[in-house]
Amino acid sequence: MRITSYGVYVPPWRIHRETIGRALGVRAGTGARAVAAHDEDTTSLGVEAARKALVGTAVRDLELWFATTAPAYADKTNAVGAHAALSLDGDCAAYDVVGSVRSGFGALRAAADAAHAGRAALAVLSDIRTGLPGSPDEVNGGDAAAAFVFSPGDPPIATQLAAASVSREFLDRWRVPGEIASHVWEERFGETAYVPLAQQAVQRALAQACLEPSAIDHLVVAGPHVRATSAVTGKLGVGMQAVVDNLADRIGVPGAAQVGVLLAAALDRAGPDQVICVLALADGADCLLLRTTDALASRAGMPTVEEQLAGWSRALSYHMFTSWRGVLRNTPPRRPDPDRPAAPPSLRSMRWKFAFEASRCTACGTRHLPPERVCMICRAIDQMTVEPLADATGVVATFTVDRLAYSAPGVPLIAAVVDFDGGGRYACELTDVDPDEIRIGMPVEMTFRRFYTVDGVHDYFWKARPLRTSRARSAAA
Known about the structure:
It is a single chain. The longest helix has 23 residues, at about 185-210. By secondary structure, the chain is of the alpha+beta class. It is about 25% helix and about 30% strand. The chain has 2 domains: about 1-325, Peroxisomal Thiolase, Chain A, domain 1 (3-Layer(aba) Sandwich), CATH 3.40.47; about 345-355 and about 390-475, CATH 2.40.50.840. Mean pLDDT is about 90; it is low at about 470-475. Strand 21 and strand 22 (about 455-465) form a beta hairpin. The protein has helices at about 15-25, 40-55, 80-85, 105-115, 135-140, 185-210, 225-235, 260-270, 305-310, 320-325, 345-350, 350-355, 470-475; strands spanning about 1-10, 15, 30-35, 65-70, 95-100, 120-125, 145-150, 160-165, 175, 185, 220, 275-280, 285-290, 315, 355-360, 365-370, 385-390, 395-400, 415-420, 425-430, 445-455, 455-465.
């Protein structure tokens, strides 16, 4: 296993467990969980994480492995949507690994095996955890995504020392297809089942690498069974200073994505030539030992998991949270429902709709959004070059807040005209913004989102969102 890059995306929306407790009249604990916005799903979350992982790399011939417990589609490969949005090489494969929390670790192993065979690969781990009101998944779950690049030709930031897996059939967590809530067996049973499996997997991996537990510099323990992961942490012979925070109090437990998010957090804090132990508990135990390299310094300046968590965030009410998750159904807007997206035009405009690629006239330099064959200025025909704009920035030229148009409950549709840096203007939606914060001249960036779903068909496209990073300060200056 040769990890060459990674990225994490944690949605900025939070619901505090105190808010859940007050709404239901129960004790729900402390801290908060991350919540995917009304226009996000596991595909869009995965695209955001992968975009961060691909920063600084020109590799696009990547085999893609997409893991989640909450796929946007069944019978259709969700990975191909992410593949298109990332503008990856069409000659490469894209596969789903879905259905269980263990899928996250499986995607990592599959991508690593592909790289070992000489094929560059991208593992995307994305999840949205939803449950019935007051359930453990609602209270303790979380929404997030992580992505890892495995490239045989690039310097690795971490290499594999050993790996060990143990599989056992026992019923501690399950969900029948079509249900939104998982069922969990009694907590003590899960602890009893998982602890010996975890110890066995770690001991086998350490033996392969000829290491002692004291050699582990950073320990990641992931899994939806909170009691089991807590019990295992203290029984592996690893110093508590090496234990990586599981972030349960800050973002919750994001299912199949958790192992990726915590591995990224470990890489963020690690130095060169350090050992990272990744232990995932789900239907058995998977252990991975990694050693970091000097190339880890190349990640300096990239946003860390901690910086994301410390950045802009906004608290949700319980009403809005349950509306976004579809648990509470509100009265729809008094407007006609949107039409179902049609397959033929979506295929014809795939590079624009998914990859957000514009065109620039080579005769006069005018940029066109959407792409055109005929230049609107000099009228030159078929003298265009492709210009990817997914990573472009711009500013709001004008905007309107429409509280009557079809949108999510409690969220007005915000339309804006964006002037892009380098030329080009386009009217699009704004997301992740308070209507009272919008102003003309606000710096924005683009994000891949789901507009709506009609008859089971998801309409994906790109929206603008305010820049809330150092890029925003630079643009404003």
